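Example S7 (C-alpha coordinates).
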Protein backbone atom coordinates (compact mmCIF):
# COMPACT_ATOMS: atom_id res chain seq x y z
CA UNK A 1 0.00 0.00 0.00
CA UNK A 2 1.47 3.35 -0.98
CA UNK A 3 1.04 6.48 1.09
CA UNK A 4 -0.36 9.72 -0.25
CA UNK A 5 1.24 13.02 0.69
CA UNK A 6 -1.43 15.69 0.29
CA UNK A 7 0.41 18.66 1.77
CA UNK A 8 -2.31 20.76 3.36
CA UNK A 9 -5.65 19.27 4.36
CA UNK A 10 -7.43 21.26 1.65
CA UNK A 11 -5.56 19.22 -0.97
CA UNK A 12 -6.92 15.93 0.43
CA UNK A 13 -10.59 16.46 -0.24
CA UNK A 14 -12.88 15.87 -3.17
CA UNK A 15 -15.65 18.08 -1.74
CA UNK A 16 -16.55 21.30 -3.50
CA UNK A 17 -14.39 24.15 -2.28
CA UNK A 18 -16.11 27.54 -2.18
CA UNK A 19 -13.89 30.57 -1.57
CA UNK A 20 -11.21 28.29 -0.11
CA UNK A 21 -13.44 26.64 2.50
CA UNK A 22 -15.37 23.39 2.72
CA UNK A 23 -19.12 23.94 3.02
CA UNK A 24 -19.79 21.33 5.70
CA UNK A 25 -20.53 22.46 9.27
CA UNK A 26 -20.58 18.84 10.52
CA UNK A 27 -16.78 18.65 10.22
CA UNK A 28 -15.83 21.16 12.90
CA UNK A 29 -12.34 19.81 13.65
CA UNK A 30 -11.51 19.77 9.94
CA UNK A 31 -12.89 23.28 9.42
CA UNK A 32 -10.79 24.71 12.27
CA UNK A 33 -7.66 23.16 10.76
CA UNK A 34 -8.52 24.40 7.24
CA UNK A 35 -9.06 27.94 8.57
CA UNK A 36 -5.63 27.92 10.21
CA UNK A 37 -3.85 26.34 7.24
CA UNK A 38 -5.33 28.97 4.92
CA UNK A 39 -4.16 31.75 7.24
CA UNK A 40 -0.76 30.07 7.56
CA UNK A 41 -0.40 30.03 3.77
CA UNK A 42 -1.25 33.74 3.64
CA UNK A 43 1.26 34.48 6.40
CA UNK A 44 4.04 32.52 4.66
CA UNK A 45 3.31 34.23 1.35
CA UNK A 46 3.47 37.64 3.07
CA UNK A 47 6.79 36.70 4.72
CA UNK A 48 8.16 35.23 1.45
CA UNK A 49 8.63 31.79 3.02
CA UNK A 50 8.28 29.25 0.23
CA UNK A 51 9.01 26.05 2.15
CA UNK A 52 6.15 25.21 4.50
CA UNK A 53 5.25 21.96 6.20
CA UNK A 54 1.81 20.83 7.32
CA UNK A 55 0.90 18.23 9.93
CA UNK A 56 1.62 14.60 9.08
CA UNK A 57 3.55 15.50 5.94
CA UNK A 58 7.07 14.27 5.22
CA UNK A 59 9.60 16.99 4.50
CA UNK A 60 12.98 16.30 2.95
CA UNK A 61 15.59 18.68 4.38
CA UNK A 62 17.86 17.99 1.42
CA UNK A 63 15.48 20.14 -0.67
CA UNK A 64 16.80 23.23 1.14
CA UNK A 65 19.69 25.33 -0.05
CA UNK A 66 21.76 25.57 3.11
CA UNK A 67 23.11 29.10 2.97
CA UNK A 68 22.52 31.76 5.61
CA UNK A 69 20.23 33.71 3.32
CA UNK A 70 17.99 30.89 2.13
CA UNK A 71 17.92 28.11 4.72
CA UNK A 72 14.45 28.68 6.15
CA UNK A 73 11.11 26.95 6.40
CA UNK A 74 7.96 27.04 8.51
CA UNK A 75 5.96 24.21 10.05
CA UNK A 76 2.39 24.49 11.31
CA UNK A 77 0.79 22.30 13.98
CA UNK A 78 -2.71 22.53 15.42
CA UNK A 79 -2.75 21.73 19.16
CA UNK A 80 -6.39 21.56 20.25
CA UNK A 81 -7.44 21.42 23.88
CA UNK A 82 -10.38 19.36 25.12
CA UNK A 83 -13.76 20.45 23.77
CA UNK A 84 -16.04 21.80 26.50
CA UNK A 85 -19.79 22.21 26.63
CA UNK A 86 -20.50 25.94 26.38
CA UNK A 87 -24.20 25.39 26.95
CA UNK A 88 -26.10 22.24 27.89
CA UNK A 89 -28.49 20.12 25.88
CA UNK A 90 -28.49 18.60 22.43
CA UNK A 91 -29.13 22.03 20.94
CA UNK A 92 -26.39 23.65 23.01
CA UNK A 93 -22.95 24.79 21.94
CA UNK A 94 -19.40 23.49 22.26
CA UNK A 95 -16.31 25.55 23.02
CA UNK A 96 -13.15 24.60 21.14
CA UNK A 97 -9.86 26.12 22.31
CA UNK A 98 -6.21 25.45 21.68
CA UNK A 99 -3.02 26.66 20.07
CA UNK A 100 -1.88 26.91 16.51
CA UNK A 101 1.91 26.67 16.59
CA UNK A 102 4.13 27.96 13.81
CA UNK A 103 7.77 26.89 13.98
CA UNK A 104 10.10 29.14 11.98
CA UNK A 105 13.42 27.50 11.09
CA UNK A 106 16.56 29.21 9.84
CA UNK A 107 20.25 28.38 9.69
CA UNK A 108 22.15 28.26 12.98
CA UNK A 109 24.45 31.23 13.51
CA UNK A 110 22.45 33.92 11.69
CA UNK A 111 20.93 35.46 14.83
CA UNK A 112 18.10 34.76 17.22
CA UNK A 113 15.55 36.98 15.54
CA UNK A 114 14.22 37.50 12.04
CA UNK A 115 11.74 40.17 10.96
CA UNK A 116 9.81 37.31 9.37
CA UNK A 117 8.68 36.30 12.88
CA UNK A 118 6.76 39.56 13.20
CA UNK A 119 5.52 39.28 9.62
CA UNK A 120 4.09 35.85 10.40
CA UNK A 121 2.63 36.95 13.74
CA UNK A 122 0.97 40.00 12.18
CA UNK A 123 -1.30 37.68 10.19
CA UNK A 124 -2.71 36.30 13.46
CA UNK A 125 -3.77 39.48 15.31
CA UNK A 126 -5.89 39.27 18.45
CA UNK A 127 -9.62 39.44 17.71
CA UNK A 128 -9.26 38.36 14.08
CA UNK A 129 -11.91 35.87 12.94
CA UNK A 130 -10.90 33.25 10.42
CA UNK A 131 -13.31 30.68 9.05
CA UNK A 132 -13.82 27.63 6.89
CA UNK A 133 -16.89 25.59 6.09
CA UNK A 134 -19.15 27.75 8.24
CA UNK A 135 -16.99 27.38 11.36
CA UNK A 136 -15.64 30.64 12.75
CA UNK A 137 -12.43 30.73 14.78
CA UNK A 138 -11.52 33.77 16.88
CA UNK A 139 -7.83 34.41 17.50
CA UNK A 140 -7.09 35.29 21.12
CA UNK A 141 -3.37 36.03 21.44
CA UNK A 142 -0.12 35.54 19.61
CA UNK A 143 3.13 34.87 21.50
CA UNK A 144 6.77 34.36 20.58
CA UNK A 145 8.42 31.27 22.02
CA UNK A 146 11.97 30.69 23.15
CA UNK A 147 14.53 30.06 20.42
CA UNK A 148 16.42 26.78 20.33
CA UNK A 149 18.73 24.75 18.14
CA UNK A 150 17.05 21.71 16.59
CA UNK A 151 19.28 19.50 14.47
CA UNK A 152 21.13 21.80 12.05
CA UNK A 153 18.62 24.66 12.39
CA UNK A 154 17.66 27.44 14.77
CA UNK A 155 13.92 27.47 15.48
CA UNK A 156 11.50 29.82 17.19
CA UNK A 157 7.82 29.16 17.61
CA UNK A 158 4.88 31.50 17.35
CA UNK A 159 1.86 30.35 19.38
CA UNK A 160 -1.62 31.52 18.43
CA UNK A 161 -4.36 30.81 20.99
CA UNK A 162 -7.91 30.53 19.70
CA UNK A 163 -11.50 29.69 20.49
CA UNK A 164 -14.47 28.62 18.44
CA UNK A 165 -18.07 28.17 19.53
CA UNK A 166 -20.00 25.65 17.45
CA UNK A 167 -23.25 23.74 17.58
CA UNK A 168 -23.01 20.80 19.97
CA UNK A 169 -22.51 17.38 18.47
CA UNK A 170 -25.69 15.45 19.12
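Recovered sequence:
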Amino acid sequence: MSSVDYGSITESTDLTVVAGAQSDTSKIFRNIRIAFESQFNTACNTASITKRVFENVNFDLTELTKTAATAEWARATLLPADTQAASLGTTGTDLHTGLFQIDYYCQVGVGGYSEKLDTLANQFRRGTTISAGGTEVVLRDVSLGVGRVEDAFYVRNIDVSYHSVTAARS
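Notes on this example. Confidence is low (pLDDT under 50) at residues 1-6, 13-23.
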